[in-house]
Design a protein that fits this description.
377 residues, alpha/beta, Aspartate Aminotransferase, domain 2, 3-stranded antiparallel sheet, 13 helices
């Protein structure tokens, strides 16, 4: 029996391993008193750009702001259609509604949880301007056909990479790219539980387009390139220097942390593969999965019962996401669905995410696996 608390994400243990470096970095910011746009912010932007092999990274206040800033940079008009997957977090769709754009939701693939290419192409109309693929739970969406459709119909692609920083996608020609760097703009989040998380809110955008990069920077800074000279309508979205300092330290350990997540996922794969109750998350052959979540599908309507048993045995779990966005009260007047959302409906009723993080060990995982395998429903 595991006697210590099991957590979905063990941020405290992760911090303790790099405590001296993190504390020193934070103290350096405090000593400098450059709390806004301090040196650490520029250092982090350049370091992340180097890691992603992206020409530009623009830090901002959070992942939701990143998505909004990206859409604002494209100079869209009311009535323009933005296609998003129906199975995702609210932020992906929320920013579309906030900007007065037309929100078009399409179904996802039941296996990868990511946007269905067939559903996507059927949803494209003359009013479509942007595709927003979401790289969900750590696995890249199928970007090659998405980019082909974007080229065919002259569309922008904004990648929602909030859950999958560090993931990779390989094209049929053998070229591999980090997710978030394939479309015109990539957006990510540094929410504490993400693959690369800070100690509060944070986000960033990346692009290889010089003109877009200039727009993104201006919009995130009240629309100004030169202080008090406002060229466009913008917003106030800055990554705090203290958060950048934390991220600079954690970025050094990022690949190590991703390997720890993948190791934990492999353990689950090997020890749960004979459990008839569940379907394991698939790993697409052309992607590197980074497991921001380890999400199983529970069969025969047993999801809630399994979650209850896990809870009774002190194993936390989460349902991402229990209600389709198009059924959420907030989105009913904004969303257009052009087809049935069969896979989305199935996933909302069956998905269950179990603990996975950088500090997992086999003792904890064995206990979690035993609890699942002992379920008799």
């Amino acid at each position: 029996m595991v006697i210590y608390p099991i957590q979905m994400v063990d941020l405290n243990s992760q911090y303790n391993k790099i405590k001296v470096e993190v504390d020193s970095a934070i103290q350096e910011v405090i000593d400098s008193s450059a709390f806004i746009n301090g040196k650490a912010v520029k250092t982090f932007e350049q370091s992340l750009a180097n890691y992603l092999q992206s020409k530009h990274v623009v830090a901002c206040a959070n992942g939701t702001d990143a998505l909004q800033i990206a859409l604002m940079a494209l100079e869209l008009e009311q009535g323009d259609e933005i296609i998003v997957p129906a199975f995702t977090y609210a932020a992906t769709a929320e920013v579309v509604a906030l900007l007065g754009l037309k929100l078009v939701m399409v179904d996802v693939e039941k296996g990868s949880f990511n946007i269905s290419i067939q559903a996507l192409e059927k949803a494209i109309t003359p009013k479509t301007k942007v595709i927003v693929p979401v790289h969900l739970f750590g696995q890249g969406a199928n970007m090659e056909p998405i980019m082909a459709l974007a080229s065919k119909y002259n569309l922008w692609v904004i990648e929602d990479n909030a859950q999958s920083l560090g993931s990779e996608y390989t094209f049929t020609n053998g070229k591999t790219f980090k997710t978030g760097t394939i479309g015109h703009i990539g957006c990510t989040s540094f929410f504490p539980s993400k693959n690369l998380g800070c100690f509060g809110d944070g986000g960033a955008l990346c692009t290889n387009d010089d003109q877009l990069a200039e727009k993104l920077k201006m919009i995130a800074n009240h629309g100004q390139k030169v202080k008090y000279h406002h060229s466009v309508i913008g917003c106030n979205s800055r990554l705090d220097t203290i958060q950048a300092a934390v991220l600079n330290v954690k970025l050094k350990y990022f690949e190590e942390h991703l390997l720890a997540r993948q190791k934990a996922a492999n353990f689950y794969d090997n020890t749960l593969k004979h459990c008839d109750l569940i379907d394991l998350p698939i790993k697409s052959s052309n992607t590197k999965h980074t497991y921001n979540q380890y999400t199983i599908k529970v069969k025969n309507g047993k999801r809630d019962a399994l979650q209850k048993q896990l809870s009774e045995n002190a194993v936390p779990s989460m349902i991402y996401y229990p209600i389709p966005l198009y059924k959420q009260e907030a989105f009913k007047k904004y969303v257009t669905c052009i087809a049935e959302m069969e896979n989305t409906e199935v996933l909302c009723d069956s998905v269950l995410s179990i603990p996975i993080h950088t500090e997992m060990n086999e003792e904890i995982q064995t206990y979690i696996v035993q609890t699942i395998n002992n379920f008799n429903g």
